[in-house]
Amino acid sequence: MSTQIAEADALPRPNYLNVKRSILSWLLTTDHKRIGILYLISITVFFLAGGLFAALIRIELLTPQADLVESDIYNRLFTLHGIIMIFFFLVPSIPAVLGNFLLPLMLGAKDLAFPRLNLLSWYLYWIGGVFAVVVLLQGGVDTGWTFYTPFSSFASNGNVVLAAAGGFVAGFSSILTGLNFIVTIHKMRAPGLTWFRLPLFVWAHYATSLIQVLATPVLGISLVLIMVERVWRVGIFDPTIGGDPVLFQHLFWFYSHPAVYIMILPGMGVVSEVITCFSRKRIFGYHMIAFSSLAIAILGFLVWGHHMFVSTQAMYTGIVFSILTMLVAIPSAIKVFNWTATLYKGQIYFEAPMLFVFGFLGLFTIGGLTGLFLGLLAADIHFHDTHFVVAHFHYVMVGGMVMAYLAGLHFWWPKMTGRMYNRQLAALAAILIFVGFNMTFFPQFILGALGMPRRYHVYNEEFQLLNVMSTAGAGVMGIGYLLPLIYMPLSLFVGKRAGANPWLAKGLEWTVPSPPTTYNFDHTPVVTEEPYAYDNRLHAAGMGQGE
Amino acid sequence: MSHSSQVAHHFEDIEQQNESLVLGMWLFLATEVMFFGGLFTAYVVYRTTYSEVFHEASRTLDFTLGTVNTLILLVSSLTMAMGVYAAKTGRRNLLPLMLVATIILGLAFLGVKAVEYSQKFEHHLVPGAGFVWPGGNPPHAQLFFVLYFIMTGMHAFHMVIGIVMMAMLLVMAMLGKFGPERYMGVEMAGLYWHFVDIVWVFLFPLLYLIDRS
Which of A228, A439, B32, B118 has a C-alpha 20 to 30 A away from that of B128? Predict the structure, then answer.
């Protein structure tokens, strides 16, 4: 009797999860959905590691003196936090997990264009990751995630070469993912799926992939040059033996500024999908949002010099970079205005993914606007290397990208697993993260404006109150991040069956069973309508209930 | 018929598969351009800043060997192109011949390069502790040789990968794996080989010819 109930409650089979069950069938899989799940597990591990370092940083900053760690350890903490979070969490987060899982489904394809290359990129990610772990076990690295020369050339006593090698290998993982996505989007669209019928998630990933393919190799060669300089002790960037440290900054930021758009554009794609579904509206200004993604990708290549206003870069160069930086605000603002306009006269449902998106809209806007302060030559002289920069960056990356990542994960989780999670707990997590995030990082804007430098753990006593607030907020945010780690895995065992389309959403990925079968579609679908063909006059009865 | 054994399961037909492969290869070459682009940027910056000593250092390179190597590589591009042509038109005897010729020319290039490198060791022009520069401004002369070794070394590394690919293609060609229906492997390797040649076409004047006008 009980077995019969269990049978009835079981997921439809066969699907991509239960078609084969051995460990080897996962490690050698070329199914884009399984690779997405492999990435999901991997980046969660690194997110926890990076989060642990962040927690240690915040605890140390509770008091103005050094009590938990000494300066040398503190340098290693923020370096590892940065390297892990950027190269092993943020860059692969949405593209490698959600993009991998969803692109073929959204395009009506059976897989990405190069399935084996896709698996290779996951292995490269882990080879890079192993380098990072070895660096950690060997005592870390203390250069900051930017590896600035000449400190990283000879002065640093950390494992610069190993860390750079890890970044180099992980970079190839990112390149291969981007290459795979571009070819897939060009060549694997279902009949009738024209460019302007593509979900904006796909447009965002197209723009992201362009940056991954064109910018990441420059990071690769910069890291190679750092390694050559350090191993063979020849001058490339070290001024004492003939090199030029500012050249390194140019090469590094030529990648690393576009890279911050790798870390935000996919999130913007998620927002477009979620906001239309939970306001039951067509997107406002489809073409503008699509092209603004490309505009951000292209302009992103032309602004790297704004990281170098206080280097020896020429003043007129600085002026040009400053103006170009202002231009990036235009496509970003177009997106925010269009999303907001999409809400107008919509039927808004406050489901967890939508709450994360609301969080994104507020936090990304603050992050973007404070970016303008830093893009202004005169203001930047004051704000440079203060906590203001830290706050700005985290508002965009954590308030923007991590919020969007969680929105996307909550939105597509039923599709990926076939199960609904606890929606009340999810809503609570979204609210805790939003509140905790603002408590953590808003004080840092004030601290930075007052002149507290970043990357120091000993500070003036008058900064303590704001630092205590920030650490307390980090605690709240930490609880918010731990909640999904409980209720999402739990949903696999106790969650209701989601059914093919629990959110009554539009898009090809919702037309197939949850979880999908290995080859996604029994017959290649034919697309006959625009994306987001929602009708805001109809009540979406039973949304999110599951079966 | 559309789903023959040559088409992977996730493609609709052979055209889609071939177009995807070609686009993927071109994107890969774009990443390579950016990769070498970083080196060329470094070269341009230092060449402009330390122009005089770069000219002096350039004069120590062996112009004859460099020219010979350039010719070798250009001919290897020809044999490669003929190999692709042979694969496309199903000339099963011509293809292995052309692949062998390309491999030999590639190895010849690397051999000449090795001779040049050993000369640098003899003349103490290898960057590092043993570097000796008779003229003025040794740190920046060393910079020229750092760039010389990294750029030509990176190029040689790409050549080695190319030669390994050619050897694999040769084995497959002998087993009769290629024909007018199935030649994408040769086509891809050809694109790669031509790219590596083009890099040299830029490296040669930048490193060897800057003081010979």
Answer: B32
